[in-house]
Backbone:
């Protein structure tokens, strides 16, 4: 079997005209191997995959297979060019059989209206055998485990006989045992001499399955190395580079305790206790699903509390709700700004005064003057780029939308800000501005709890860091004592598969 | 950075398109028949749109909040029957007729208010889609009106009572006064109060509203209670006009009311719509029906024209919002 290559040449992709997702990336992948692509959030790995898979168009550059330039602008085109992708989210039909799912939309036919069931079964068995998977093509998919369903997805992709198979975080929903099955299948596929691209954020998996690793950082290509030469620390170094410590101002922590949380328990978190001081910036780190977001949600009264106590400045809050917590001086900025934080078809002014709607009203009337003040003061303070505050919010860029989310809460003059991923999906400058806002607020005595999946951010912005794992607080540290590697080590130490979502 | 210009006014070309079409329609009918543009006919139109117009004001809130209320038509019949029934019963036990009808009206409005409250409770507490919950009440209220009245109109109002629905204050129909007062109040509520702003927020993004500390259940509770109450007001007025509580009045009104709101530019997806738009939508429908009647267009054709009109309005709505993006 002759070797061939998938080459990515000078690919550049810019979103929203400002966010550079990929910057002149060039790399190549050889057949017969498993190539891991890794990078922290916002590194551009997903974008690169989506361009190869035909979901996005590159702004510049080209992709070559067999040294021939391939052009596609849809996943179906990509499939015809021999590039198949298995996404994180399963796309199977539960009420159809395994075989039907594999050949969905192109079932073998006997005549115009009759399906050739025998051929479908035989072909399905063949594909499944290629993976070394023992599954009955006549099973209903809804009866399979998630791991088995993932394997059916791969079988479906393989039934197109692709030259390149992309696996986008295939293990994110699987248990350890199921991961092993999947790796076994991938190793079997390797023997058939195709190019396998494997995207994951779990470092440990690389050592089990990958032959080479390609690292991206901030949209730039950092390097490709053979896995046999790499240690985990080397990869972490490539992913994070030399971490620039942003010039964090001296902390402005005061002695009064503004928030106390005791033995908080919901169905996602357990036994969470901590204190927050006035002017303190507390970071919560942890992998996806570790319960970091849920801690904020529990405090703000969004998830049902099974037990535990929330004390805001000596006042015990019996049944928290967003309304009550707002009155007590708390604010919450959600990580999903489009789904949970903004009324996109309303104006920028409306969104800046959403939480403070009763503050700008006297009696049952909105005070227009006050509203104008509130809107303008946030536009100035956060330097939101806006010509007309009456314009619809969805006309703004991601960074400006995020500032509107923050501004909405700053308008309530909060004492405690709960911020979930405040820097998600915004460019470097906007990020720095958001951090400056947090620091500035701290100086004025506002305490902040910030959840972030970006370790450098947690370290760079916060005074103190809680590391969460499986719904519990695993460690508590002062940020100045910490390095990315040490948090990383915290996660590597015991657990095999679980790791921070870096 | 230069000082930004504050423009809090929502400029929406759609509103003006509708007004232009309305003016064109008025001119067309005026040219087509001399009986159209006369004072008495215009006042007649005003009175005719007032009944459904009152309900449309509530429906505007409902639709902006992203919900729907199909029970309003049945509520009209139910409220009329309940008022007539209570009047009859109370006067039967020896109460003065005027006192009886006043108590009957107040009780009816309170009952309607709590029915709306209960509908909102079903929607917010058990996450029943408003389409289903109000469809159920569309049937329940229709049935209740038939049960109470045994299927026949209930008579026995005092003489003066018909003035509410059929009378005039000077040249102005009294019904229209009710409508105009409600219109001004609702315009103010939607435009200038935190409650009105909350309705837009809830309809635009209910999660964002909740996370901003807006009490979504309370907002929806008020919306549905008010809408049911408005429908009951319309029901009492029409019952006064026909001088009896007839169980089947208001049948099909829910769709006329929804049509007026939609023609006025509201989107069923929630988050957009205005009281002004609804007013124009209601006038539009009223003029169209009146004009067609004057031109002797058959009732059969009226349905087709109205259907086409709704389609055109929604098409305009989507096309303009697409070009706004």
Residues:
């Amino acid at each position: 079997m002759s070797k061939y290559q998938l080459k990515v040449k000078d690919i550049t992709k810019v979103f929203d005209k400002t966010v550079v997702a990929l910057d002149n990336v060039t790399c190549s992948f050889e057949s017969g191997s498993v190539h891991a692509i890794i990078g922290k959030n916002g590194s551009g790995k997903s974008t690169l995959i989506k361009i190869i898979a035909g979901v996005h168009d590159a702004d510049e550059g080209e992709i070559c297979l067999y040294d021939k330039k391939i052009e596609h602008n849809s996943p179906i085109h990509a499939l015809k060019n021999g590039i198949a992708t298995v996404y994180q989210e399963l796309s199977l039909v539960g009420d159809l059989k395994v075989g039907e799912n594999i050949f969905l939309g192109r079932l073998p036919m006997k005549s115009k209206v009759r399906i050739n069931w025998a051929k479908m079964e035989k072909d399905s068995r063949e594909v499944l055998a290629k993976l070394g998977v023992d599954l009955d093509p006549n099973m209903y998919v809804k009866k399979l485990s998630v791991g088995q369903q993932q394997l059916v997805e791969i079988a479906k992709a393989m039934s197109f006989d692709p030259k390149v198979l992309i696996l986008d975080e295939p293990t994110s929903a699987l248990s350890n045992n199921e991961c092993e099955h999947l790796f076994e299948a991938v190793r079997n596929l390797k023997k058939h001499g195709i190019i396998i691209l494997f995207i994951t954020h779990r470092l440990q998996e690389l050592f089990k399955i990958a032959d080479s690793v390609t690292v991206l950082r901030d949209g730039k290509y950092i390097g490709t190395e053979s896995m046999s030469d790499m240690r985990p620390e080397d990869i972490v170094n490539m992913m994070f580079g030399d971490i620039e410590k942003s010039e964090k101002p001296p902390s402005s922590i005061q002695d009064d305790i503004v928030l106390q949380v005791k033995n908080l328990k919901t169905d996602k978190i357990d036994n969470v206790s901590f204190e927050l001081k006035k002017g303190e910036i507390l970071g919560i780190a942890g992998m996806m699903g570790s319960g970091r977001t849920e801690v904020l949600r529990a405090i703000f009264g969004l998830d049902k509390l099974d037990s535990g106590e929330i004390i805001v400045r000596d006042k015990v809050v019996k049944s928290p709700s967003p309304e009550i917590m707002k009155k007590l001086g708390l604010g919450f900025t959600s990580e999903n700004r489009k789904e949970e934080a903004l009324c996109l078809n309303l104006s920028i002014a409306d969104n800046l005064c959403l939480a403070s709607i009763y503050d700008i009203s006297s009696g049952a009337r909105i005070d227009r003057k006050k509203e104008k003040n509130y809107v303008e003061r946030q536009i100035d303070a956060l330097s939101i780029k806006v010509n007309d505050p009456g314009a619809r919010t969805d006309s703004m860029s991601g960074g400006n939308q995020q500032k509107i989310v923050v501004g909405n809460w700053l308008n309530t003059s909060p004492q405690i800000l709960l911020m979930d991923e405040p820097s998600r999906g915004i460019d470097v400058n906007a990020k720095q501005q958001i951090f400056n806002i947090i620091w500035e607020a701290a100086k004025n005595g506002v305490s902040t709890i910030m959840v972030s999946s970006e370790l450098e951010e947690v370290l760079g912005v916060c005074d103190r860091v809680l590391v969460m794992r499986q719904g519990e607080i695993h460690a508590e540290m002062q940020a100045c004592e910490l390095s990315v590697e040490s948090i990383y080590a915290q996660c590597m130490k015991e657990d095999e598969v679980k790791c921070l979502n870096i | 950075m230069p000082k930004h210009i504050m423009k809090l006014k929502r400029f929406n070309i759609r509103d003006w398109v509708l007004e232009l079409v309305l003016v064109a329609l008025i001119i067309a009918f005026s040219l087509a028949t001399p009986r159209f543009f006369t004072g008495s006919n215009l006042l007649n139109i005003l009175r005719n749109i007032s009944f459904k117009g009152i309900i449309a004001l509530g429906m505007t809130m409902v639709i902006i909040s992203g919900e729907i209320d199909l029970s309003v038509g049945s509520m009209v019949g139910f409220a009329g029957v309940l008022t007539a029934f209570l009047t009859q019963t109370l006067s039967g036990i020896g109460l003065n007729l005027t006192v009886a009808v006043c108590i009957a009206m107040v009780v009816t409005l309170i009952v309607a208010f709590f029915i709306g409250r209960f509908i909102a409770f079903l929607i917010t507490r058990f996450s029943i889609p408003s389409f289903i919950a109000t469809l159920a009440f569309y049937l329940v209220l229709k049935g209740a009106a038939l049960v109470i009245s045994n299927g026949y109109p209930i008579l026995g109002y005092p003489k003066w009572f018909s003035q509410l629905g059929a009378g005039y204050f000077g040249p102005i129909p009294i019904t229209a006064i009710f409508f105009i007062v409600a219109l001004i109040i609702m315009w103010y509520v939607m435009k200038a109060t935190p409650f009105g702003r909350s309705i837009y927020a809830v309809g635009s993004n209910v999660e964002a509203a909740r996370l901003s500390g807006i009490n979504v259940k309370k907002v929806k509770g008020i919306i549905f209670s008010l809408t049911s109450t408005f429908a009951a007001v319309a029901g009492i007025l029409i019952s006064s006009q026909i001088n009896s509580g007839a169980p089947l009045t208001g049948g099909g009104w829910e769709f006329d009311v929804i049509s007026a709101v939609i023609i006025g530019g509201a989107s069923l997806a929630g988050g957009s719509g205005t009281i002004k738009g609804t007013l124009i939508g209601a006038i539009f429908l009223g003029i169209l029906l009146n004009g067609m009647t004057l031109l002797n267009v058959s009732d059969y054709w009226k349905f087709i024209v109205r259907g086409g009109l709704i389609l055109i309005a929604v098409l305009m709505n989507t096309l303009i919002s697409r070009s706004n993006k």
Remarks:
- The interface with chain B takes residues 300, 302, 322-323, 325-327, 332, 334, 339-347, 349-350, 353-355, 357-358, 360-361, 364-366, 368, 371-372, 375-376, 379, 383, 386-390, 392, 394, 408 of chain A (CB under 8 Å).
- The longest helix of chain A spans residues 428-443.
- Chain A is about 30% helix and 25% strand.
- Confidence is low (pLDDT under 50) at residues 493-502 of chain A.
